[in-house]
Amino acid sequence: MTYPFKPDPRLDLVLERVVDAPRELLWRAWTTPDHVKQWFTPKPWLITDCEIDLKPGGLFRTRMQSPDGKETNDRHCCYLDIVPNERLVWTDALLPGYRPSGDPFITAVISLQPDGRGTRYTATAIHRDEATRNNHEEMGFFDGWGTVADQLAAYVKTI
Amino acid sequence: MTYPFKPDPRLDLVLERVVDAPRELLWRAWTTPDHVKQWFTPKPWLITDCEIDLKPGGLFRTRMQSPDGKETNDRHCCYLDIVPNERLVWTDALLPGYRPSGDPFITAVISLQPDGRGTRYTATAIHRDEATRNNHEEMGFFDGWGTVADQLAAYVKTI
Prior knowledge:
The structure is a homodimer.
Chain A: E1 12-19, H1 23-31, H2 33-39, E2 46-52, E3 59-65, E4 72-83, E5 87-91, E6 94-95, E7 99-100, E8 107-115, E9 118-126, H3 130-138, H4 141-156
Antiparallel strand pairs in A: 1-9, 2-3, 3-4, 4-5, 5-8, 6-7, 8-9
Helix pairs in contact in A: 1-2
């Protein structure tokens, strides 16, 4: 991988924000299970469980729960690249130990760059083809990932 | 990932050989396109093209050609973990730049450990489920990867 990652607009979706918090706090929010539970899915959906094994090939697991508690969705991802306070890359195309998954959808690149007293927060979703990228956009990528970024920005002020 | 990798016999297939060559030579054979072309597919099939970008997230591409020249098969894989002379991990579940692929099948872990004056060569194929593992075995994993290991062992004596 070459960084900074250059997204391909035909295949990738990019959400960018300047967040009024140092990147060290955003890093902690992204890499600590108890923090992830507080902001990682658009409310009123909940993250009821989170497991993190922060190394390349390690597990990033979240359990999402519907507001009425009737629906849960477990997602097992694998970390690929970890540069503390700067870059976090994970994918659902692999399970922990780099095992291929049965349901590949995205690789995510989270980039944290200093911007004045805050942080330029860039979340990129990388897809296998244009159809998958366009579906993701129609499913509400910008609303969903935007809401999550807003929740993250609000949450880090409390930690 | 934790090493040494512990394969799961329900999900993984392992080919092991002691090769009468130092592991530095095996490493060169695995990571140099002109070498890879000489041994990487069971003869009389050929590798007619190979491209290697030896870094995590980098491309490992091979083009296989049938003996009559009528059939070719391009395979795009992505390197995950690289420890020179010791370990090479790549997958077809991702394309270069960690992009999910449309056709995930295996992650491969190639391990080179000193053994007397030679090398213990271990090639592990990691699958997503038992069905995929069993299909791979029935497709001839042990014959195919065994022949390739024999070709590799013979070839490194010439470089």
